[in-house]
């Protein structure tokens, strides 16, 4: 552990190194062990993405009940499946620049309020058109939550644990989606499809109140935007008393920061190619994730499985990401992160193809769904961490949120392709076999990024 710093006047008496007049925020965080303050930030960000995942997955799990309750065909649910995803695109694309301009905390609190309120309203929908509008508005909040939780947490973690902690936090999204399956298997038969949306609305509203009082603003953001030194001291002091003694603060990238807005940062010379490859990788990963999330329960129902079993197997796909996220983050902190992520995308394609060949073999099917979920969700969980490390503070929220926002077009495409292919009469095996293509593209794109654009701003 690094030697604690002290004021120059105290150095002779204490034998400790003096506190510099300007304290490097990241170096200070790196020099300290993780404390309860930082673990609280991890927990709060985890809860944000957990509820994000719970609400995002809701439509996939209630779709069979909607078909039965409203007497509609599966193709009619295509707009409903895509509405929240379209909202998430706009939520992500708008929230990043807002967070880089006005702060991460305010955007996070607002996003929780937004998706909580409109999820509650969605529970009282009477028709497809109304549900489409409300799910779009819910998606605005959902899209803003995840990238800014990722950004805030990455700016409070030491470099040596950054990938592990951010991917562990991000697995809350997969756990939330899995919880949606497990909870829906019990709640929907007992209380109807409305109950899942009610739960997905009340919990974020309660969390927003907690965030308002317990979540700190990013110290690195405050320094980058030139906020009052006293405010920076207050948010860093719980990490170590040395922060209270510093006369000023800096962040490493201030030495190389160029004039221009956030888009000049993420499309700057050293970042342009990496930005485009991150977008392509995440886009293809979400094609896989959302086709399976949106349609796997329905495909299983069509193959003869009960509603409870279809929901359970669908939840295993999301739960797989929870099991693998920590391992992926640990490996990224110790090995080439691009190769680690590329390997997981490759395995995702192979296991997804195998799922399509195991219809009728319940135990094997469940195992392969779990492995496919571990692979693709593990890779997707690692991507925000990779992006957060790639971009500097003054463009980090925009870089992460735009990767997630552009990637959401892949989610929309995945949900739409599922509806289209099923409408054309494709079989279970055909639909899943087609996912080898996006898995291969994602693998190639992330490996190429590792070769041509591997800068790490930390």
UniProtKB/TrEMBL annotation:
The cellular location(s) given in this protein's UniProt record come to:
Cell inner membrane
> What is the protein's major site of localization?
membrane
Is Nucleus there in the keyword field?
A: no
Q: Report membrane topology.
A: Multi-pass membrane protein
GO molecular function annotation: carboxylic acid transmembrane transporter activity
GO CC term (a single one):
plasma membrane
The alphabetical list of record keywords is: Cell inner membrane, Cell membrane, Membrane, Transmembrane, Transmembrane helix, Transport
Q: Which family does it belong to?
A: Belongs to the major facilitator superfamily. Aromatic acid:H(+) symporter (AAHS) (TC 2.A.1.15) family.
The name of this protein is 4-hydroxybenzoate transporter PcaK
The organism named in the record is Azotobacter vinelandii (strain DJ / ATCC BAA-1303)
